[in-house]
User: Fold this.
Amino acid sequence: MLLGNAALVTVLSVLLIAAYRRRRRESEQHRQQQERSRSQRQRLAKAIGEREVLNREVHHRVKNNLQVVTSLLNLQLRKLEEGAAKDEFKRGVRRIDSMAVVHHKLYGLQDLRGIDLQKFFTGLVDSIATSTDTKGTTVSCAVDTAGIKADADTAIELSVILCELVGNCYQHAFPYATGGHIEVTVRHVEGDLHRLVVKDNGLGLGAGPTDGTGKLGLEIVEALSSQLDGNFKMSSSAGVTFDVLFRMSKPVQH
Assistant:
């Protein structure tokens, strides 16, 4: 009996030692796995941070280059005689200025993976209002994007569309210094489909937003809408409403 008990104790001891060693080995493996995961997260965070810095630097350089182009075009503009050609040249320069503003705003953002359209569009609209003639100083503009965020590529194309449409409102809807109002809204429709609406309470389509002075801008909007796998339409009722359906190229946070 004593020998049997001793053998049983010995077997149990061996099993306990084996279980303990296995537990230690598994614990060490788990610790090493956690260490590798932590190291990978740190490297990933560093890479993402470096990419964000690089992206902002790219936008900064693009903005500077566009400003150089604008300066050169303004020098050329001085040599043109007054007329339709010079007016079209001015509009082209303003479009380049708008692109420079877009990249300047992107450079100032902390997160380029999910751009807050409320903050981004508000800054753009304020810049457009500042750069317009004095007749636009009495025009108010409200932006409501319902907390929607966009990736950088979509935000850039939307911002070009916004600059064209809001600029069109300032140029055509309010020819007199009597004031007016522009509303900019972005809403989620379904899935990855969204809608951008720019609406003014100005003179309406009869005032000429589709004539020769504004046709190119609307063609640009239509082309960019197609690039965003959407469409563009406009209507007139107590002003003009521009409606842009578009799709986000990446998942969006609401």
